[in-house]
Amino acid sequence: MTLGMPINYAGDFRETIDNLRDFESVGVGRVTVPEAYSFDAVSQLGYIAARTEKMELQTGILPMYSRTPTNLAMTAAGLDYISGGRAVLGIGASGPQVIEGFHGVKYDYPLGRARENAEICRKVWRRERVEYQGKHYELPLTKENGGSGLGKALKIINHPVRERIPMLLAAIGPKNVELAAEMFEELQPFLYHPDHVDAAFGEPLAAGRAKRDPSLPDLRIVVQASALITEDADQIAAAQATVRHHSALYIGGMGARGKNFYNSLVQRYGYVDEAKLIQDLYLDGRKDEAAAAVPQDLIDAISLIGPRSAVAEQIERFRTSGVGVLLASPAAHTHEQRVADMGVLRELIG
């Protein structure tokens, strides 16, 4: 299992990166930078590449709709080059609120676009001439489909460091999970409950793996979890409250009734009534009550908060469920304690 950590895109990025070598020194093996409607992730990862030596650099995640497939491939190849082969290309669909609201691009066919993105990226990295006739992308674009007729099949000029840069798909829906298991190196679900993997993802994982190219490595599951190692009851309560409110935001507020992927996921975990209650409260503007309605055992399952012994048990739950990369988000108030906590996690992971 690889220990990684996310970088907060809303925080003081420069200060965080100035301290990143401290985390690398205690065994943090991956860093991931998200991209919502914030600063872009790639320029920040390029800066991180220059400040670190061994950490994998994961985009977490790049929305498919805001870049063409070939631009994603070029971007990942460039990051892989300047980092000496440390890039992981994480992509996902984001949601219509961001894609149509911030980018002004139609949000459609996320499943088909993810498949075609992966196929096109790998053609680029193999330095093949990019000729592709898909449902969503056509390269070169023909005159019959709106082009000028002057498009030319090209291959990337540079020689990529690797012809297969690891690709990660952020997914929680059954069809997207199946696609990740079929053709991506990594899958990153959200609000991951290690005890209910079969109920939530078992069938799509099995279906995808049955179609998986044998040349691909085993699928790695990447999980993000808030982390705080302490026996102080007040600190534990405060850290769990943050997780509780964050969970309520997604379960209750990320989408309309009947159109919330996170709410559906939690229902697949077995929290059917609880998920409906959280959504009703949140959409009615009663956000604190919605947070209070998030079950305690769900909070415990998706985080790494508490005494060392409890955190060790939770790491084993993650490991047993198939997690290969644990992105721990340290929640301590001081840099020194955050580094110490990540060191303990590295020791517990082994």
Question: How is this structure best described in words?
Answer:
- The protein is α/β, with parallel strands linked by helices and 350 residues long.
- It contains 15 helices and twelve strands.
- It has helices at 13-18, 20-25, 41-51, 69-83, 96-99, 110-125, 174-183, 197-210, 233-253, 261-268, 272-283, 287-292, 296-302, 308-321, 335-349; strands spanning 2-6, 30-33, 56-59, 62-63, 87-92, 132-133, 138-139, 167-170, 186-188, 220-229, 304-306, 323-330.
- Strands 1-2-3-5-8-9-10-12 form an eight-stranded parallel β-barrel, surrounded by seven helices. A two-stranded antiparallel ribbon has the order 6-7.
- Helix 4 links the parallel strand 4 (62-63) and strand 5 (87-92).
- It is globular, with a radius of gyration of 20 Å.
- The model has no long low-confidence stretch (mean pLDDT 95).
